[in-house]
Specification:
This protein is of the alpha+beta class. It is built from eleven helices and 20 strands. α4 runs antiparallel to α7, α7 packs antiparallel against α8 and α9 packs parallel to α11. The radius of gyration is 26 Å and the shape is elongated. The N and C termini lie far apart (59 Å). This is Protein kinase domain-containing protein. Pfam families: Pkinase. GO terms for molecular function: ATP binding; protein serine/threonine kinase activity.
Length: 433
């Protein structure tokens, strides 16, 4: 496969350029040549009357047509680790078509995030197993066609429709996003037993692995950098109406100062929180409104990811999990950052039990930038101005997140870059005075 071109989020919504190539259908007496056209999620193949003039087409309707849907399966023909054709469904049968490998690679690139391919082992060489669990396993592999190293998540199908729908939801979300701080999906394969999600291979370790080594203590400056990159990823997701719902050190890859957020197995679009795994996440990183959702029957929003990120920040500062039962902040003397009251203030506002008292991802990102600009920045003053604490509603209610506005009875918190920046700039002037 050739290297994917840079694209913008939600590429499927952008105007697409038609792709043409010549394909051959082998026959006993005489081969037939067709012009393949891929455009607007549809493949058509029209018979070429004169094989020497590709543009000289039969003016009749295309003989072969395929409407492409997100989980339509497609099989490539491969011999000696080279693409030479594909199988095309026609009247209940699979017809073989051959083409030049360069054309096939370009076609494959265009189809990679719009279909599900078959026979992964013909396309990728197994290298090693990176992780195993009840879900299946993650392996590192190498593409036969371009020698590119990838990671493949093999998710075991248990035969239940809800489980398959959850996997397909993860695939849909990964296909819809593209951001330098988020893992990138390349292709999807399927067998009778597995869905196999092919993504970029990310060098290095995750934060959980890094913190398991007591020598890997992060300095304050690096912790702020990690949190800034994490919230750059979260604000992108939230702007695109996606909740991750499993923010934890194991899902944050970090190498050479670069962060990538991975594992969208529990992610969902806003509005589907109570329909798709409402009570989910990893112990020690789950917001109270998620833990109590079965009792309250109330919806929750993007701020559950802010809470999880606050727990990650606490872990970076102390090397231990936050005690969620009483939200006690135990400072670990073996960690040099434990005396940094400013960062602990940041943890406190990110892990407020009431989501209406908790800032949005947009506000936290701007606050982190303000802290990096001024190491003595007063977080308490910022928070007091951003939230009317005396009117905080103790029994939170669900709120509309369509325009990032969360309201309670006597409180309004506008979750946007501009509102946070305005508050920050005003407070910065006060502090400097």
């Amino acid at each position: 496969m050739q290297k994917k071109q840079q694209s913008q989020p939600f590429l499927s919504n952008q105007q697409e350029v038609p792709f043409y190539c010549r394909v051959v259908r082998k026959h006993f007496f005489r081969d037939r040549v067709y012009q393949l056209k891929y455009y607007n999620n549809q493949i058509t193949m029209t018979y070429v009357i004169d094989i020497n003039i590709l543009q000289h087409l039969n003016m009749d309707a295309p003989k072969y047509l395929m409407k492409i849907e997100e989980f339509t399966t497609f099989e490539w023909l491969i011999k000696q680790q080279r693409l030479f054709g594909f199988k095309f469904p026609y009247q209940g049968k699979l017809k073989e078509f051959h083409a030049d490998q360069t054309d096939l690679m370009q076609l494959r690139q265009r189809l990679s995030n719009r279909m599900v391919f078959l026979n992964l082992s013909y396309n990728y060489k197994y290298l090693t197993t990176l992780e195993s669990g009840s879900f299946g396993q993650v392996t590192s592999n190498e593409c036969f066609f371009n020698n590119k190293k990838v990671a493949i998540k093999h998710i075991l199908l248990n035969g239940k429709k809800d489980h398959q729908k959850q996997i397909e939801n993860e695939i849909q979300i990964l296909r819809s996003i593209k951001h330098p701080k988020l893992v990138e999906i390349y292709e999807v394969f399927k067998t009778e037993l597995y869905y196999q999600i092919v993504t970029e291979f990310i060098e290095g370790l995750n934060l959980k692995q890094l913190m398991s080594n007591k020598l890997n203590q992060f300095k304050n400056e690096e912790i702020l950098e990690i949190m800034q990159q994490l919230f750059e990823a979260l604000t992108f997701l939230h702007r695109n109406q996606i909740l991750h719902r499993d923010i934890k050190p194991a899902n944050i890859m970090y190498h050479n100062g670069k962060l990538k957020l991975i594992d969208f197995g529990l992610a969902c679009y806003d509005g589907k929180q109570l329909l798709e795994n409402p009570n989910c996440g990893t112990e020690g990183y789950v917001a109270p409104e998620v833990l109590n959702v079965h009792q309250t029957k109330l919806n929750y929003d993007f701020k559950v990811d802010v809470y999880g990120a606050g727990c990650v920040l606490y872990m970076l500062l102390t090397g231990t999990k936050l005690n969620q039962s009483n939200l006690s902040f135990q400072k670990n003397k073996t960690y040099q950052n434990s005396e940094n009251s400013q960062l602990f203030e940041l943890v406190k506002i990110m892990t407020k039990p009431n989501p209406f008292d908790r800032p949005s991802s947009f506000q936290i990102l701007e606050l982190i930038r303000l802290i990096k600009e001024n190491c003595a920045y007063d977080i308490s003053l910022w928070y007091s101005s951003a939230f009317n604490l005396s009117n905080s509603n103790n029994s939170y209610q669900t709120a509309s997140t369509a325009r990032y506005v969360h309201t309670s009875k006597n409180q309004k918190s506008v979750c946007s870059f501009n509102s946070a920046r305005g508050i920050g700039q005003t407070l910065s002037k006060q502090i400097l005075k």
